[in-house]
Amino acid sequence: MPSCASNAPRSGCPSTITAPDLSQLICLTKVQGMELAVPFLSCQRRAAWGARKATHLCCPSMKYFLILLSCTIVVFLASMRWQRPAESQIKEEISEARSDLKLLSPEKYKSLFIYSGIWLAPKNQCECAKVDHVHVYEMEDYIDKKDLASVKERRQKEFEHYQKRYPSMTQDIVIAKPNVPLSYPIQGVEVMPLHTIMIPGLGLHGVTEEKYQVILRASLGTLNTLADVSDDVVRGRGKKELLILTSDVELLNFILEHVTYTSVVYQLSAVDMMSFESRDHVAQFPVIIRQPSLPKLFDPGADRKISSLVTITTKTFLRYHKLQLLIKSIRQYYPDIKIIVADDSEVPEKIIEENVEHYIMPFGKGWFAGRNLAISQVTTKYYLWVDDDYLFTENTKIEKLLDVLERTNLDMVGGSVNGNTYSFQLLYEQGDDSGCLHLRYGSFHKLEGFPNCVVTSGVVNFYLAHTDKSRHVGYDPLLQRVAHSEFFMDGLGILLVGSCSDVSIGHQAHNPASEPNLTKVEDQYKRFRTNTQAQVQFKLTLHYFKNQLKCYSTR
Amino acid sequence: MPSCASNAPRSGCPSTITAPDLSQLICLTKVQGMELAVPFLSCQRRAAWGARKATHLCCPSMKYFLILLSCTIVVFLASMRWQRPAESQIKEEISEARSDLKLLSPEKYKSLFIYSGIWLAPKNQCECAKVDHVHVYEMEDYIDKKDLASVKERRQKEFEHYQKRYPSMTQDIVIAKPNVPLSYPIQGVEVMPLHTIMIPGLGLHGVTEEKYQVILRASLGTLNTLADVSDDVVRGRGKKELLILTSDVELLNFILEHVTYTSVVYQLSAVDMMSFESRDHVAQFPVIIRQPSLPKLFDPGADRKISSLVTITTKTFLRYHKLQLLIKSIRQYYPDIKIIVADDSEVPEKIIEENVEHYIMPFGKGWFAGRNLAISQVTTKYYLWVDDDYLFTENTKIEKLLDVLERTNLDMVGGSVNGNTYSFQLLYEQGDDSGCLHLRYGSFHKLEGFPNCVVTSGVVNFYLAHTDKSRHVGYDPLLQRVAHSEFFMDGLGILLVGSCSDVSIGHQAHNPASEPNLTKVEDQYKRFRTNTQAQVQFKLTLHYFKNQLKCYSTR
User: Fold this and answer.
1) What three-state secondary structure class fits A295?
2) Residue B138 burial (CB < 10 Å; 0-12/13-18/19+)?
3) CB within 8 Å: A493 and B361
4) Less CB within 10 Å around the terminal CB: N or C of chain B?
5) B2 exposed, middle or buried (CB, 10 Å; 0-12, 13-18, 19+)?
């Protein structure tokens, strides 16, 4: 039976990922959708009953069997009542027999599915194609062969636990059937956990019956109606199944208009696919149980001073001479702004500067541990990340970056370092059991309203960012030495990132210092800073597990 | 015109919040829903065109006007084509004239809407009712009158910016109209930004026309079809409006089956309400543009040692004697586990203990700043929060708490301190421009599968928690002195919290220490620790702005 995990593309379809190839795309889309062309609507109802346990209605082989069985039983009974014109012309099998119904040739459609040179249509399995100028890392190559099976098993187990806590709110596709006399809320209604809401829009229209029978079913909550009617008419008040029996269609619709749903389990985020059945038809709609969060706002103060909106953060290690030059250059332009310094030097020195907060860490804890520490202490809406060997210049106008963030929905905006902007896209493909990540230099498109700015996935190490979203993403303290794009990988889907070319910061020269003891310091620094083969292996092994990746390609 | 912000209950309804009062609930639910009973379906189509610009379709007065105008025009034209039985019986106005259609009396329905003694049905404005045993804080009382107007204006501006970056993905309710010959994906389809998908399930069924005309409209993406047909049949390929004109219904459905949607703006999370129209009918469905995130998994290692899964974190201030006793007690039971200590003492002392990581902060930075620092350094899947004056005992079995988190979707589980568990619920009501928060002692219900545990909103200061979600919530460094429930307020909707009574930790006695200099230390400590009136005012003013609250009630 095909996999019913809603995020992953469906199995049961050809597994070729030869691009361009529409057959897999079409198969995957069809398996996701429900069967449309069912000539006998009562037949569909029975199939829906049978498939109801598999709430997703995503397992076509079971559905086919039930439809077939039900159809055989029902065909005879329904043939008396059949009044609609044959719907057979809408059946796909007949359409496929028509030779004039054809799809576009690859040259015509492939531009729809290729982005940055990668074939990105939905697939069962992704890959990192080895093409010119692209460097591919197959992550399993970096793991000890004797450990690989055990690592894979652990990773799968951790992923299943993760999915329980980060449930996918996107359901399997449910198609609204045509010509159904039921009305209901299409995208569903939202209810807070353990609360009650009225479900709007339920009704049965344009059907005449002697005795109407309507059943509503839920699984994560109980049902009721605010209509004052006897137990003969409504049964199951306060239960998961509500049955309405009446010959009075106005009364029926009055009861339906006032149906209530009460969530019974405290959950932060869940979907209850309810079913709504009359004698001959059935529809489904979701009730979304969601606990809303409190907003988290920062007060900029009545005067909106830069120092009330922005904190400067940096990490330092051994290079106090460079740090002092940085601080001096900041003070030239921003005398009041708070500076937070995370420091994991071996022999910490005192930093006695006005409005500079100095945090001392265990020796060599690392680059991202220090970054995570620094932003954990910010109390303003934004923070400006700088490296300890930068230099503020007259072009380092924080106000310009601030303007971009205040007037858009970006979470972060990068500038340029010594005149160089640097931005890259991250393209992520999910697969059945592991994903593929592609890094490509460049940006997605311009930022509307800001001609010097673009939207992208990652930027240089000089940026203004929202404190809330950055802390949500976090700088992973496992990354002790060289790391940069890893923060943006963790930020994918959470941080909306831009890059502007008109705000720049200077970089202190890499020249050997004039004094011999400073040279010694810089040599020691370099030893920690080199991206060794061991470093590369460590990071690939980490991302294999942590981000459930199969391969990583960069250009 | 009523407010169209989808999260807040609708205005345009009676603003009384006298509980129990169903009239407002019913009005709010109806305003949210679309009009159902429109006798002329072509009439509805024209109203939908007019209302299309207000994608939400949530402004009934505009809709009423358009429906009225269109109906006047259309009535004459349609009267020739009218074939359905009068649908007037489903119109509510007539239902209301029937005296036998009545709602339940308050005594019968109020239990549906009361939780923990609070009337929680949807309202325009919430309130913190002054009743016995409940302490109410009206936040505006704590703000300087001369500043209040300016603060409110700033808060509203910050909230509007916040909403741009945290868009509500729940749309206004759209009701599936009955007896419509269109099929379409009810809850919509998901597409990654700048990617293309095929939209499943579009079709027109059971209608016979000489020439079929179908229009598809999008706003955040462009449309196309993979069907190979000429420009006479399909116009607008690659644009936001796709027009299909053909007399061949099989061809029409073949084209519709293969319609593609391409997202054109890089966004993390957005909803494009598409419209799907035939000559006489219109339907809507959402296309959800979403950038998925990479999973973030932690490797427990092949042997799943406690020290690979859990880090102990604490904050200390002045009380090194107590901290040393804590560490000693931990080592008695967990010799290998890493301990992280955040320290903002005035004169930091060296802590030389195996596997204890000591972080030194500026003096008096504060309680939550220290907590946020400590968890920013954790590299394991979980951390165990302890205060620096606790004592591990033989009942402090981290493995039991670990078992609860590993086997459920909880994000945090609290234990008991000196035999006392403490848990509280947080009930949050959103209002038009500010919310109400109610804290009530107790829990929601038992935790399934764990008879000693319950589900709640907040617990004591002794808990095992997932590192990822805790860092997402964060301990707000603005809270320098006394604070506890504020973390759980920030965690509402993000952290799923449990409390178990069978794991406990000891508490070092509050007795004055035997040595005089320790007494001096403890006196100094107490001065920072008292919840003064100034503290209370500071926190209420903070939460008024930060969480956009109007009032806070506790019991």
Assistant:
1) coil
2) middle
3) no
4) N
5) middle
Q: Which residues 111-130 on chain A approach chain B with CB closer than 8 angstroms? A: 112-113, 115, 120-122
Any idea of the CA torsion for B72, B75, B77, B83, to the nearest 10 degrees?
Answer: 160
pLDDT in tens, A153-179: 999 999 999 988 888 776 667 788 888
Token pair 């920030």 is found at: B490
Q: State how beta strands A310-316 and A382-385 pair.
A: parallel
Backbone angles phi, psi at B387, to 5 degrees: -85, 160
What pLDDT shows up at residue A520? Answer: 72
Selected residue of B294, B358, B411, B551 to mutate for chain A interface (largest A Cβ count, 10 A): B294
Distance CA(B23)–CA(B142), nearest Å, equals 34
The distance of A169 to chain B (nearest Cα, Å) reads 11
Torsions phi, psi for A277 (to 5 deg):
-120, 135
Q: Cβ contacts (< 8 Å) between B340 and chain A: which residues?
A: none
pLDDT digits (tens, 9 = 90+) for B49-107: 333 333 333 344 555 565 666 555 655 555 444 433 333 333 444 445 677 888 888 88
**A162 lies within 8 A of chain B by CB:** yes
pLDDT digits (tens, 9 = 90+) for A275-293: 999 999 999 999 999 999 9
Question: What are B157's two structure tokens?
Answer: 């501006």
The continuous run of DSSP H or E covering A540 comes out as helix A533-546
Q: What is the distance between the alpha carbons of residues B207 and A73, in angstroms, rounded to a whole number?
A: 28
The DSSP result for A192-218, as a single string, is: -TT-EEEPTT-EE-S---SSEEEEEE-
Q: Alpha-carbon distance B80 to A228, whole Å? A: 40
Confidence of residue A40 (pLDDT cuts 50, 70, 90): very low
Q: How many CB atoms lie within 10 A of CB B68?
A: 11
- Contact assessment for residue B144 and residue B151, using Cβ atoms and an 8 Å cutoff: no
CB burial of residue A37 (10 Å; 0-12, 13-18, 19+): middle
**Whole-number pLDDT of residue B82:** 44
A382 touches chain B (CB under 8 A): no
Task: Please judge whether A198 and B25 are an interchain contact, meaning their C-beta atoms are less than 8 angstroms apart.
Answer: yes
pLDDT per position as a tens digit, A231-273 = 999 999 999 999 999 999 999 999 999 999 999 999 999 999 9
Are residues A174 and B185, on separate chains, in Cβ contact within 8 Å? yes
pLDDT at B94: 44
Contacting residues for A18 by C-beta, under 8 A, at least 6 apart: none
DSSP per residue, B510-553: -SPPSSHHHHHHHHHHHHHH---HHHHHHHHHHHHHHTTEEEEE
d(CA A123, CA A8): 9
Which one, of B409, B7, B120, lies nearest residue A265 by Cα? B409
User: In Å, what is the CA distance from B413 to each residue of A274, B196, B280?
Assistant: 31, 42, 56
Q: Which of B32, B153, B198 to mutate to test the interface with A (most CBs of A within 10 A)?
A: B198
Residues in Cβ contact with B335 at an 8 Å cutoff, skipping those fewer than 6 apart: none
Greatest pairwise CA separation for chain A in angstroms: 101
Q: For B7, how many CA atoms within 13 A lie in the half-sphere containing its CB? A: 20
Pairwise CA distance, residues B298 & A238, whole Å: 42
CB atoms B466 and A165 under 8 Å: yes
Sorted by sequence, the CB contacts under 8 Å of residue A286 that are 6+ apart come out as A171, A187, A188, A271, A272, A273, A274, B187
Evaluate whether A422 touches A488 at the Cβ level (below 8 Å). Answer: no
H/E element, B234: strand B234-235
CA pair distance A399, A306, nearest whole angstrom = 8
Instruction: Kindly report the number of other CB atoms within 10 A of residue B481's CB atom.
Output: 17
Best-predicted range by mean pLDDT (B5-14, B116-125, B491-500): B491-500
